[in-house]
Design goal:
The complex is a heterodimer of chains A (about 425) and B (about 525). Chain A is α/β, with parallel strands linked by helices and about 425 residues long. Chain A has helices spanning about 15-25, 25-40, 55-60, 100-110, 120-125, 165-200, 205-225, 265-285, 305-310, 320-330, 355-365, 385-395, 410-420; strands at about 1-5, 50-55, 70-75, 85-90, 115-120, 145-155, 235-245, 250-255, 290-295, 300, 340-345, 370-380, 400-405. Chain A is built from 13 helices and 13 strands. The chains are: A alpha/beta (about 425), B alpha/beta (about 525). Strand 3 (about 70-75) of chain A pairs antiparallel with strand 4 of chain B, so a sheet runs across the interface.
Amino acid sequence: MSYIIDRRLNSKNKSTVNRQRFLRRYRKHIKKAVAEAVNQRSIRDIDKGEQISIPSKDISEPAFHHGQGGHNTRVLPGNKEFVSGDRIPRPSGGGGGGGSGSGASDQGEGMDEFVFQITQDEFLDFMFEDLELPNLVKRQLSGSEEFKMRRAGIANEGNPGRLNIVRSLRSANARRIALTSGKRKKLKELEAELEKEENLDPALRNHLRIESLLEEITTLRARINRVPWLDDFDLKYNLHVKDPQPRSKAVMFCIMDVSGSMTQATKDMAKRFFILLYLFLQRNYERTEVVFIRHHTSAKEVDEQEFFYSRETGGTIVSSALRLMKEILEERYPVSEWNIYGAQASDGDNWNDDSSVCSKLLVDDLLPKLQYYSYIEITPREHQALWEEYSDVALSHSDVFAMQQIVDAGDIYPVFRELFQKKSVV
Amino acid sequence: MSEQEYTYLKRNPISESSEWSFDLVEEYDRAIGKIAAEYKLDTYPNQIEIISSEQMMDAYASVGMPLGYSHWSYGKQFLNIQQSYKRGQMGLAYEIVINSNPCIAYLMEENTMTMQALVIAHACYGHNSFFKGNYLFRTWTDADSIIDYLLFAKNYIAKCESRYGIDEVEAVLDSCHALMNYGVDRYKRPYPISAEEERHRQQEREEYLQKQVNDLWRTIPTQPGHADDARGFRFPVEPQENLLYFIEKNAPLLEPWQREVVRIVRKIAQYFYPQRQTQVMNEGWATFWHYTLLNTMFDRGLVTEGFMMEFLQSHSSVVFQPAYDSPYYSGINPYTLGFKMMSDIRRICEKPTEEDRRWFPDIAGSDWVETLQFAMRNFKDESFILQYLSPTVMRDMKLFCIVDDDREDTINVNAIHDDSGYLKVREALAGQYNLGNREPNIQVQKVDIRGDRSLTLHHVQYNRKPLDAESTDEVLKHLHRLWGFDVHLHSVLGNQVTASYHCPPRGDGGSNPDLQLMPMMRN
């Protein structure tokens, strides 16, 4: 007797829990592999899934077993040339040809690394773990926000799905008691009287009285029974109300230098940095707006496509970008409602006397309105005026201003992590 | 299929295409079941489940347990399988079967009808009848309650995780898994496990156990002149082979829930113990029967020639045995050895040669169905090979026996498949399947109950084989975590200790302090 069951639809991914347990346990290894992968990838596929490999030794599960040596007898198949009494030289490399130990290590050598695949989502999760936008504090109530349903007690109206049975029945019970208690009391009295009459000696009984009592009792009973068990106004409903949820609105300004001094390599690095930033925002802060600004001698607001892919060069005036940022801010992003962030990448080259203009612009006009501003300088060379000026700003505004230097592509991810590391103290 | 080849046979196959459907699976199952009954195969009822390849990997990763508790090692297993499956290094095993009642077997939806029929014959009638008939499974496992018990274990572990945290539970499980092969009573039949009873008695047991442990470790001084310490009271009185059992009952610092976790791992290890002892027989039996059953179907015209071609192709890849010097060699293929031996027993019964009559006077010429049944019921790998491995099979597989002794410069060929060698090869091969020889023999020797509470184990060397130092150190760390006090392991040859391992390591023990396991938190 056999039963045939189709199980294809239920409980797929039974091992998902186990898989997650595995990822959880080897978090550190995976994060390291992810960091390495981010640096090696080309810009376009930076957010793909990844092959992770972990040294097998680190994840082995130990058990007692025999080591090499001692007296081993083994039976092997496929004899071609041996007859009993043959002596075979031991294969070099220590292991006995047929020794149990060598059999195991032969296989082990091919499998030094434990390799597995993680998905794109998991990859990004690991990539952006423990990162956040700093100082995201302003929260706003505005018109078309999201709502949250909240319980708000009991109501007399509602739809049948929300019927509160306990409360309805309790109220019905109360109503019945209220409407019938007088009658019940009367009924009891009448019944007592009737009983007294009936216990009398038959000769003394007042038949008329008994009859009228019986009649009264019947009508009373009927009236009590007429009180409905459940009435319309007994029904109670759970009440839910919509609560508007305050939400933080954030905007990120990405400012990139595309001047002639930036080589293709530095531009690539800057782009990589902004792609990381953009991915991070998209993933963790869904509704964050991003404003892309590119500048050489003049600055221009562009869309994502142009920001990352168009080629354009010229001289360098950094303040043009900051000025544009200020204008856009005033025009579109009122400080009272928005959490405002800025990220700037440059090779540090600037028009000579422009650097002091930049720092002045930053300190006077921008920083007071910003939550956080980060500057990365991509250069292997000596720092120039812009870095010096910014250093002073960093000293005086250390809570909202951060700067880092990137020398080669390997620095991008670590620097990025540093800039947006979750602060433990709020 | 001898005569039928010559007579014209009217074929009336159940199906001609390779597509399967539920109706067809049912029809094939009925046909195979009917033939199996003619061959007197006694089985549990079958529960055939159709699953996807992903589910098959799941099932595979959790050692075939349909309801395993969660543990990272199963996740590792899953990733491993998934990776090699994707690379195409490994075809998925097309069958998994577990010994429960009803017997659950999985069919993968991607398979063709031929493969489904093969799996039904192999698992639902081959393995199934083995589980029901073999004495080890009959005495050591309880097919009626295993599913319930696994469910109990899964829920219990999940409860512990939510109460004490995943890390805590994982730590205990890791340590238990390291000792899993030593969580088995080798000679004593365990009480049947029943999930219902487990649940009822678990609370009771927790309290009782804790009391026992407390009693053993009582620190109030006994009256002076009291017998035990003066005369060197020994605990345990006899060496204990079941390390997990010993820990569950006697580890001084474990919490009641930790003892229960140890018990769960121990019970599951015990449940799988017969499987490890009957690999050759079990696979051989199932392979023999799928071969026999499907050939009988062909003889009766129930399947087409195309079906047989596909079937024979996968059958021969299952029983392929690479030679010892082939790059594909990874030990003796239990399917091959088992299948050859089973088929050979049938041959000896039906067409014995002079040699067979000399070697197997009892079975030569007897009824093959009964002889095979007897062999299946009453043996395990070791004794089965010792009893039934015939010269024909040894010649066929070209088995030879080598001795690798570290005191000699060369490896010696001790015996080959010839008249003077048959007995030696057979004995050596049987020894190879003796779990007692394969795994180091490690037992609890002594606990210093009045002193530092240290636990001393002895490894009794077999054929002077030493322990693998690195893994031994690792396992001792786990043992130390469970025991809570110092653990010593002496490797003993005769009366002489040849190596000692300690946790925590002593002096230049050589262990890496970074890898030291943190002691468990105790509240």
